[in-house]
Structure to design on (130 residues):
């Protein structure tokens, strides 16, 4: 793992994998009748994924430190509801959302997983649009 990190830093320092050195072909304009917005997203993901190879070492470290700092800030203010143990939640859901529970005790039949994971799903959506 550590050797991998050193290898990536070495490749970034050499600069042979810098995306600006290569001409990437866009095939969608020949095959699609209209512009595809997924290409815009794919380009952004590509730039983010290979930013170590495209940026100089100081810029990459500065930006990576910012990513880590912002992640830690969000983790500190995160709603404690989303910090629950999903294994226990799904065990409870299996018990309360089973056909046997519905047949024997319909009043306690409950979709626990749907209700209890709602804050997690809302958090994921909110984080993805930031």
């Amino acid at each position: 793992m550590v050797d991998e990190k050193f290898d990536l830093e070495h490749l970034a320092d050499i600069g042979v994998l810098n995306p600006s050195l290569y001409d990437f072909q866009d095939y969608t304009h020949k095959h699609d009748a209209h512009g595809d917005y997924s290409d815009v997203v794919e380009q952004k993901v590509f730039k983010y994924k290979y930013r170590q190879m495209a940026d100089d070492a100081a810029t990459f470290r500065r930006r990576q430190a910012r990513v880590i700092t912002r992640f830690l800030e969000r983790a500190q203010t995160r709603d404690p509801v989303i910090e629950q143990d999903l294994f226990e939640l799904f065990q409870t859901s299996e018990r309360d959302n089973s056909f046997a529970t519905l047949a024997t005790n319909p009043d306690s039949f409950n979709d626990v997983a749907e209700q209890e994971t709602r804050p997690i799903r809302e958090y994921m959506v909110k984080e993805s649009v930031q």
In short: DSSP finds nine helices and no strands in the chain. Residues 57-76 form the longest helix (20 residues).
